[in-house]
Amino acid sequence: MEITSFAPVYIPTLNRYEHFKRCLESLERCTWADKTDVYIGLDYPPSEKYVEGWKKIDAYLAEKEKSNGFQNLYVRRRDHNCGMGNPKSNSALLSEEIREKYDRYISSEDDNEFAPNFLVYINKALTKFEDDERIYCVCGYNRRITLPETFTGNYYLANDFVAWGVGYWTRKQRPQKYRSFEYLKEILRDKEKYAILRKYSPESIRDIVSMLKLHKYHGDVLVNVYETLEGKYSVMPTLSKVRNHGNDGTGLHSKSMVEDFDRYFSEQIIDEAADFDFNGTPQIQPEDMRTEQFGQLIPAWKKAVKNLIFRIDLFLLRKFNYVPKSKYI
Q1: CA dihedral over 12, 14, 19, 25, signed as positive or negative
Q2: What is the pLDDT of residue 100?
Q3: Sheet hosting strand 9-13, strand order edge to edge
Q4: How far apart are alpha carbons 90 and 196 in whole angstroms?
Q5: Per-residue pLDDT tens over the stretch 66-113
Q6: Strands 135-139 vs 166-169: parallel, antiparallel or unpaired
Q7: What is the pTM of this model?
Q8: In the 3-class helix/strand/coil scheme, how is 60-123 assigned residue by residue?
């Protein structure tokens, strides 16, 4: 497969020096790193506790700007804290800059570690599926899965999404309505849409309720909902091209560490090959695929209480368009 356009990679970061260093250097070791433009957004520390790590990353990047294995390395140092999850966040500014210049791109968090063939897999997928309107994105990460013996491919299509290293086409953007709390409420109240989610992505219903109660968007959930309702898919590798180290209590969504939970992700086996070629024709995720789950993190009684309150919350949202403020989200 001839690749004529290589996707740039953008990575927002702030102060997690060890995570960021591992991330960037694993990317630098990838096949085709020398053909790849990399954009780093270094946010400004919001308080004193972030300064030490921020200084380490700043100094490290200053050296990498002098010598690195990428086609180009661009560092955007913010002069004030841009934060996360808003239209002018560090990540959003990087994304906006990238989408103005390129027709495809790869986004990553700073706590990922990449397989040697990560860039090959993503770039080949972005070329192979460019004109396939069913495909929304290409995920580099996949969970610990077991496929049926009859499945022989090294990838599949799924209404699934994990944001740990993802390839996109600039023209294939998710409709803005999927970033509207009113539309999310409408989805729950619409019998047809609700039935589709209940059948194909039941966890998304719980996640929508959580977003409405927190009044906070979760991008991975929005993609899952969008793909399920619109008949779109992510390309998923059967063997993950990414290992994640962000479940150690240092991340935005990981405020405390459970040691076994952290190891479940940080010791995950990933592809060690330097190259990748797509094997077989595109297949939808097999119904009998099994995903290895991490053990129970909360007591059974608490899970039962959460489930009960969730059902009450869902009833209030669907029947009365009321967003409750109950505790167990």
Answers
A1: positive
A2: 97
A3: 72-77, 37-42, 9-13, 104-107, 166-169, 135-139, 233-237, 155-158
A4: 35
A5: 999 999 999 999 999 999 878 899 999 999 999 999 999 999 999 999
A6: antiparallel
A7: 0.91
A8: HHHHHHHCCCCCEEEEEECCCCCCCCCCCCHHHHHHHHHHHHCCEEEECCCCEEECCCHHHHHH
